[in-house]
């Protein structure tokens, strides 16, 4: 299992950063390799990715979500094994630290080699930088979901 941890400071209030992150269907606008995400209901997502020519489809379940604090998930279907959490930390009224921790199981030669040379780490860092550009350029979120999901519910 590979673990990736990255963070970035964004120049928007914590509520704005969090609310944008809950708009999963907008992820292809700032996450490389993500072709689409379909939100099936409050807790379930369907992902389609194409990373380095490796196409994947899988489902994920939001396992914990607390407004302005955290979103955690785990994959539930397909051949992709991953789990993660993104947390939001208020630095001041107009600045937020976004921290991502992702645990995933590379499969196949391309993914194993990519992980061994930290391509996955660089991809997460790059995606957080694109998120920063995306939300700072807009200055506001494209939508919001303020629901609360307790771990284990």
Descriptors for this entry?
single chain, 153 residues, alpha+beta, Alpha-D-Glucose-1,6-Bisphosphate, Chain A, domain 4, seven-stranded antiparallel beta sheet, 3 helices, 41% strand
What does this structure look like?
- The protein has 153 residues and is α+β, with helices and mostly antiparallel strands.
- The chain has a single domain (2-138), classed as Alpha-D-Glucose-1,6-Bisphosphate, Chain A, domain 4.
- 24% of the residues lie in helices and 41% in strands.
- It is built from 3 helices and 7 strands.
- Strands 1-7-6-5-4-3-2 form a 7-stranded antiparallel beta sheet, covered by helices on one side.
- A hairpin with a 6-residue loop joins strand 5 (70-75) and strand 6.
- The protein is globular.
- The model has no long low-confidence stretch (mean pLDDT 89).
